[in-house]
Write a structure and sequence with these properties.
alpha/beta, Rossmann fold, Dimethylsulfoxide Reductase, domain 2, Barwin-like endoglucanases, 3 domains, 6-stranded mixed beta barrel, 32 helices, about 20% strand, binds iron/sulfur cluster
């Protein structure tokens, strides 16, 4: 990659945010947007009745700061979506596909908002403009030409609003398939599976208020300063209220060490807030070993101090405690400790923090979910909470932190390849057709099916599928084998550069765009990471008169495809309130939707785990027995996790720096333990290739600069999506099928100069 030529490897800072974050935010947004649009967008960002940030899914507090209720990365997300620059028809006639393929993801994103529907056919060198009518006709004809609706797959990314997601799944099921993969297949699917099994709901149980009241907060496999920065404000408040925080993460992340809140004097000129009372730099994917060691020690202590464990809660609210206890107490503690790479004294310090506390919250990110044993990881976290009676009460519970603004809402709206019986029954009752019952394809299954030519049409509602998916080269081949690939997008991205026989790009409105129809400003609704549903209204003029709202695009695809439909698609899209009326009738918890969403802070969805009324078949929470990681390594093999830089949001690259890790002007780096660097006779900045050989297929990426770093021995970290070609499609979590992007075996070789 071009950018790596100027790579600078510096020293990571000891704290995150501060005044520097403010300067960088201003610099990023004013570079891309007019002063007027900047002011208008930021004034409304995350305010009541304002625009919901298109970045992460972190919830908004009840009282919003007038200084601005957003973080540096929220500003970057706005600058990215609402930039003044346009990737219009002239842009596509200037650059051929082969020229665009040579550019970096960062460059592609900086070319501006898409303004016209575009088409490319096999053999063409460039995308060309097409009318909306013709584009819809092509989609309808291709879908109707398939011998079976299961030969099409319909992807959704987290940005999609509740209204668009509901219509999309309705259309797809009327068309006849449950092939509704989504981005949560690649991130928190393991959380959903584990939580559904153990506490009866596949979502977290806590609210912001719980975080403020917690006595102990555990943060597993997560980097809030980059991926959900306003979480640090909540953690700061929790600490002020007396909470202790333990961070469990292979990398020492600046934001988990110290936070300088730029809205306080202490954050601007003072020392900031120490976030972690204890920081455990665990070896990658040894969370189950650590938790077993901790619970083993808790059982030992409970032999003399029984109140350490909440027997009342366990007896009344849980099942399978005895089998769980038997498994934990029969563990070999020395082996567990060795696996973690930690000293026993560190584990004892962790235990000492747990012993006197009952209000415990466990937060986690993809550091727990993206492993073959991702579901086990989360179930083991739940075991600890259940032992302590730390769920279903104030200040305690589960907090999987979702990465994309409405990813949780999309699933609630029925974007699911394995829909619940209850949803299918409601659809059947309300819409007069029998939806398909058989399971559809997840992301990984869709890629495999496209590669085997069992799926011939791929439609993506948002996202950057190719960069987000594992096994990039394989996924590219899979998309190329399709008859038709369609991307409903706001900006150009790498996925547009790999197409089927016909490729379409349909430009859609984003969160920041104002949408007026019939003299009325429309709004949409979203659900945040803590199950609060609220409205979001764009305030800026859309980039072109040709871009369409996502609900309208779905309705027009439906009209072009379905020969018979009892749904009046025009009626629904003429007023988004009509869509919400249908959601009200179909999805549990949305009763009186249009009225309740008028509340400026939104409304809370039902959550049994939050109230201690577990919605499992037995009505009790369930202890589980989980295995430590079973991955075996050769002597010269490392375990690699992919991670995001600070100038990045999922697949969107905002810039080339990762200043919290001391990296500037480049992304092609591999973070390594200093001893490992020395043992391989490598030096800082040396270029290496990383490779592996799963299922007899050699995968290799080259040109990664060595960065000696504070990471446990044997562990490596690289950026996503640059290292995605190393993640084999078949390496997925049991049950959830989440790609195991955070435990990939790799070897390293120095490149010849
Ligand atoms: S914390 Fe997340 S939702 Fe909030 S402003 Fe930052 S990126 Fe946006």
């Amino acid at each position: 990659m071009k950018e790596s030529k100027n790579l600078t490897i510096g020293v990571p800072p000891k704290s995150a945010a501060g005044i520097k974050a403010v300067f960088i935010s201003i610099q990023q947004i004013t570079k891309r947007m007019s002063f007027y649009n900047t002011f208008k967008a930021l004034k409304n960002l995350n305010q009541k009745k304002g625009t919901d940030c298109p970045g992460c899914a972190w919830p908004d507090p009840t009282h919003r700061s007038k200084l601005g209720e957003f973080c540096e990365n929220g500003v970057k997300a706005i600058a990215e979506e609402a930039m003044d620059k346009r990737a219009n028809s002239a842009f596509f006639s200037k650059y051929s596909l082969s020229e665009l393929k040579k550019q970096s993801d960062y460059w592609l994103g900086q070319q501006g908002r898409l303004t016209n529907p575009m088409i490319i056919e096999s053999g063409n060198s460039n995308y060309a403009p097409i009318s909306w009518e013709k584009a819809y006709k092509i989609i309808g004809e291709n879908l109707n030409n398939l011998s079976n609706p299961n030969k099409a797959t319909f992807y959704t990314s987290g940005r999609t609003s509740n209204e668009a997601a509901f219509l999309y799944q309705l259309f797809v099921r009327m068309y006849g398939t449950n092939n509704l993969p989504d981005c949560s297949n690649m991130c928190h699917e393991s959380s959903g599976a584990a939580l559904y099994n153990t506490v009866g709901i596949g979502k977290g149980s806590v609210t912001l208020n719980d975080l403020y009241k917690a006595e102990l907060i555990l943060i597993f496999g997560q980097n809030p300063a980059t991926n959900h920065p306003r979480m640090l404000v909540a953690l700061e408040k929790a600490k002020k209220n007396g909470a202790k925080i333990v961070s469990i993460n292979p990398l020492k992340e600046a934001g988990l060490v110290n936070f300088k809140n730029p809205q306080t004097a202490k954050g601007i000129i003072g020392k900031g807030t120490t976030i972690s009372d204890l920081y455990l730099q665990l070896k990658i994917n040894e969370d189950v070993a650590l938790l077993k060691a901790v619970m083993y020690k808790l059982f030992k202590k409970a032999a003399t101090s029984p109140s350490i464990i909440d027997s009342n809660f366990i007896n009344n609210k849980t099942i399978d405690f005895e089998s769980f206890k038997k498994e934990i107490t029969s563990q070999n503690i020395e082996e567990l400790i060795t696996r973690t790479g930690l000293n026993e004294s560190e584990i004892d310090a962790f235990v000492d923090l747990i012993v006197p506390r009952k209000k415990i919250i466990a937060c986690w990110g993809m550091g727990l979910t993206q492993h073959v044993n991702g579901v086990d990881n989360i179930q083991e976290v739940v075991n600890l909470l259940l032992m302590k009676g730390s769920i279903g009460k104030e200040g305690a519970g589960t907090c999987p932190v979702r990465g994309h603004s409405n990813v949780q809402g999309d699933r609630t709206m029925g974007i699911a390849e394995r829909p619940s019986k209850q949803l299918l029954e409601k659809i059947s009752e309300n819409f007069g057709f029998t939806p398909p019952k058989e399971s559809g394809l997840s992301v990984v299954e869709s890629i495999a099916a496209m590669h085997q030519e069992k799926v011939k049409v791929f439609i993506a509602m948002g996202g950057n599928f190719l960069s987000a998916a594992p096994d990039t080269n394989f996924t590219e081949q899979a998309l190329e084998k399709c008859d038709l690939t369609v991307h409903i997008s706001t900006k150009l991205n790498r996925s547009h550069l790999t197409h089927g026989k016909i490729g379409l790009i349909l430009p859609s409105m984003g969160r920041t765009d104002k949408f007026i129809q019939n003299g009325k400003e429309e709004f949409v609704t979203v659900e945040n990471s803590m199950g609060i549903v609220h409205s979001s209204q764009g305030k800026l003029t859309p980039p072109s008169s040709m871009v369409e709202s996502e609900p309208l695009i779905v309705a027009n695809i439906a009209k072009a495809t379905l020969k018979q439909s009892k749904v009046d698609w025009d009626f629904l899209t003429n007023d988004f309130g009509n869509i919400r009326d249908l959601i009200d009738k179909t999805i549990a918890g949305f009763e009186n939707y249009n009225e309740r969403v008028k509340n400026p802070i939104g409304f809370e969805l039902p959550n049994g785990a939050r109230t201690g009324n577990f919605t499992t078949p037995t009505k009790k929470a369930k202890f589980t027995v989980n295995k430590v990681s079973q991955t075996k390594f050769d002597n010269n093999e490392f375990i690699m996790m992919t991670t995001r830089s600070h100038d990045q949001f999922n697949t969107t690259i905002y810039g080339l720096d990762d200043r919290y890790r001391g990296i500037y002007n480049g992304r092609m780096v591999v973070f390594m333990n200093e001893e490992d660097v020395a043992n391989l006779n490598l030096q800082k900045g040396d270029l290496v290739s990383l490779y592996n050989n799963y299922s007899n297929t050699k995968r290799e990426v080259s040109g990664f600069a060595v960065v000696p770093y504070n990471i446990p021995k044997g562990c490596l970290a690289t950026y996503f999506p640059e290292a995605n070609p190393l993640v084999p499609l078949e390496l997925t979590a049991h049950i959830s099928h989440t790609p195991s992007s955070k435990s990939v075996k790799v070897k390293i070789k120095k490149m010849e100069v």
